[in-house]
Specification:
Blueprint (H helix, E strand, L loop, with lengths): L2 H22 L2 E9 L6 H14 L4 E5 L7 H4 L9 E2 L6 E2 L1 E2 L5 E3 L16 H13 L6 E7 L6 H9 L4 E6 L3 H16 L3 E13 L6 E2 L6 H9 L3 E7 L1 H9 L3 H4 L4 H19 L1
Parallel strand pairs: 1-7, 1-8, 2-6, 2-7, 8-9, 9-11
Antiparallel strand pairs: 3-4, 5-6, 9-10
Helix pairs in contact: 1-4, 2-10, 4-5, 6-7
């Protein structure tokens, strides 16, 4: 690559970054929800966090950054036939309106068929992500919740680099293999000097519906130990309840369908902590 081509590429990148920063400046708080591995309930936490904030009267958007495995629209009960509107002149994209006036954008709403896989390499995913951040008309929001794919790869790195003022929530189960990967994610966030709100331990304990015994299906203490080792907050523990999975499949946030459940009570406490920390900063 020649010197002039290199300079042109740098200038183009700088313009994209400037556009993203200007667009994100209209949003007061950006919360990134990440996990070390899949299957720990990260999207469940992100969706219910966005719904809980919207229910409290906040203007909220949720961005599904999991390009190849998007589940946010499904868990909010949004039909895949409902598509974001793109202005052909300005090339701006408008997110769809979800429940509680949530602004929602997901790759699941951009594909023609929900069964079609998105078979993209890294550069294509990065281009899509930068469009989501720089060209989507989110408007003036109190909160934008970003649900990221698991791990420490392309999409996660790009989000953490492109939104320097975001706050980060790490989700894990108490299981050793989940905590092992969560610790890597925590370390990555600290290396990048991002504001880590803390860790949420999901599926922490199961209460037997017949005898009431508390069963630690995935072990115990992993989240608390990680929080202590890395000097971060333990935001809370969400118990394992079968209704949570059912409500995700039905597109109903569990905090509304089962407001008096142990999971909802625990989650509302976590949301209060997150909101208090964000609004103090």
């Amino acid at each position: 690559m020649s010197k002039s081509e290199m300079e042109e590429k740098i200038n183009k990148t700088d313009k994209i970054v400037d556009k993203i920063h200007k667009n994100m400046a209209k949003i007061k708080h950006k919360i990134v929800v990440i996990s070390g591995k899949g299957g720990v309930g990260k999207t469940t936490v992100a969706v219910n966090l966005a719904a809980a904030l919207a229910n409290e009267g906040q203007k909220v958007g949720i961005l599904d950054v999991d390009i190849t495995g998007p589940n946010v629209a499904k868990m909010l009960g949004i039909s895949p036939e409902l598509k974001p509107w793109a202005d052909p002149k300005s090339k701006k994209i408008f997110p769809v309106d979800g429940p509680l006036n949530l602004k929602v954008l997901s790759m699941a709403l951009l594909t023609k068929n929900p069964d079609l896989p998105v078979i993209w390499r890294g550069p294509m995913k990065m281009n899509a992500l930068r469009q989501f951040l720089g060209e989507v008309v989110w408007g003036e929001l109190d909160y934008l919740v970003c649900d990221l794919p698991p791990g420490t790869s392309d999409e996660v790195l790009d989000i953490l680099q492109l939104i320097p003022d975001e706050t980060v929530v790490v989700v894990s189960t108490p299981q050793d293999v989940a905590i092992m990967d969560a610790r890597k994610t925590i370390k990555m966030t600290q290396i990048m000097k991002r504001n880590l709100l803390g860790i949420v331990e999901n599926m922490s304990v199961f209460k037997c519906p017949k005898c009431g015994e508390l069963i630690e299906i995935f072990g115990s203490g992993g989240g608390e130990k990680a929080a202590k080792d890395f000097g971060i907050r333990m935001l809370g523990k969400i118990p394992f309840e079968k209704e949570i999975g059912k409500q995700g499949d039905l597109g109903l946030p569990f905090i509304f369908r089962y407001p008096n459940s142990e999971s909802s009570k625990a989650f509302k406490s976590i949301v209060k902590k997150i909101r208090d920390i964000n609004e103090k900063n």
